[in-house]
Amino acid sequence: MSNLSAEQLTIGYEERIIVQDLNLQFKPGNITAIIGPNGCGKSTILKTMARLHPASSGTVYLDGKMIHQTPTKEIAKKLAILPQTPEAPSGLTVHELVSYGRTPHQSGFSRLQEHDREVIDWALEVTGLTELQHQAVDTLSGGQRQRAWIAMAISQETGLLLLDEPTTYLDLAHQLEVLQLLEKLNREEGRTIIMVIHDLNQASRFAHELVAVKRGRIVHQGAASEVMKESILKEVFNIETTIVTDPRTSKPAMISYDLIKDGV
């Protein structure tokens, strides 16, 4: 299993500092959910950990190596990232999209080998897309399209899978469909999954560990039972909450919340 961590990480856009002196260690083999209000730096942290955004200072380590000194192809064999709103060229089929995940394992313009085809078929099967593999990605439903992108990411055969808001724009059924797929990949394939997610109850239900972020710093990191507390959610989101135990999952669940008024 690959290890991903950050030490004294400072991230910004031009003169604006978003994250400062961040120390973060993700546990291999876990599903980790990064939660926090809009603009707190969640997506910026994820992109920087994947080397999609440069750090102003500090270091990201992938398997003990400084990620900014690691060849791109080597990174792509260990880490796959799915951004918020990926777009495929018009008319691209599901099979063609998923096959792009094999690019890090190929040399130059070499054709797909037998193992590549086996992995693509497996990724299509595990995401439930075998029957849709010849259909254009832009004709799929939201949930199907998101599964197609996940299939491409897992076809990279990486131990680490990073996802930025994988349930955005999906209805409740499709959100569950995607999260249950990620849970299955973690359980059956041993993938380490790190995701930015807004729904606190989904984070509590599907993640082994939550990282609560506010203004670019970690407020608390731990199991859902440690993070889904009224005091922590008050500090992170400025809300008063009612937390109960979900009878279906035995995980903490927020059933009600309200804004804290200024001066209260």
Q: In short, what is this structure?
A:
This protein is of the alpha/beta class and 264 residues long. It is 31% helix and 28% strand. Helix 4 packs antiparallel against helix 5 (142-154) and helix 5 packs parallel to helix 6.
In whole angstroms, the N-to-C terminal distance is 46 Å
Beta-strand residue fraction: 25-35%
Low-confidence stretches: none
Which structural class is indicated by helix and strand composition? alpha/beta
Count of β-strands: 12
What is the H-and-E element order? EEEHEEHEHHHEHEHEEHHEE
Q: What's the story with the biggest beta sheet?
A: 6 strands, mixed
Write down the Rg.
19 Å
The strand line-up of the biggest sheet is 6-7-8-3-9-10
Shape: globular
Query: Helical proportion?
Result: 25-40%
How much is the average pLDDT? Answer: 91
Distinct helical segment count? 9
Topology:
Elements: E1 4-13, E2 16-26, E3 31-35, H1 42-49, E4 57-62, E5 65-66, H2 72-76, E6 79-82, H3 94-99, H4 114-126, H5 142-154, E7 160-164, H6 172-189, E8 192-196, H7 200-206, E9 209-214, E10 217-222, H8 224-227, H9 230-237, E11 239-245, E12 252-259
Parallel strand pairs: 3-8, 3-9, 6-7, 7-8
Antiparallel strand pairs: 1-2, 1-4, 4-5, 9-10, 11-12
Helix pairs in contact: 4-5, 5-6
Could you characterize the architecture of this molecule?
The structure is a single chain. With 264 residues, the chain is α/β, with parallel strands linked by helices. Helices cover 31% and strands 28% of the residues. The chain contains nine helices and twelve strands. The protein has helices at residues 42-49, 72-76, 94-99, 114-126, 142-154, 172-189, 200-206, 224-227, 230-237; strands at 4-13, 16-26, 31-35, 57-62, 65-66, 79-82, 160-164, 192-196, 209-214, 217-222, 239-245, 252-259. The strands form three sheets. A six-stranded mixed beta sheet has the order 6-7-8-3-9-10, with helices on both faces. A four-stranded antiparallel beta sheet has the order 2-1-4-5, with helices on one face. A two-stranded antiparallel sheet has the order 11-12. A hairpin with a 6-residue loop joins strand 11 (239-245) and strand 12 (252-259). Helix 5 packs parallel to helix 6 (172-189). The radius of gyration is 19 Å and the shape is globular.
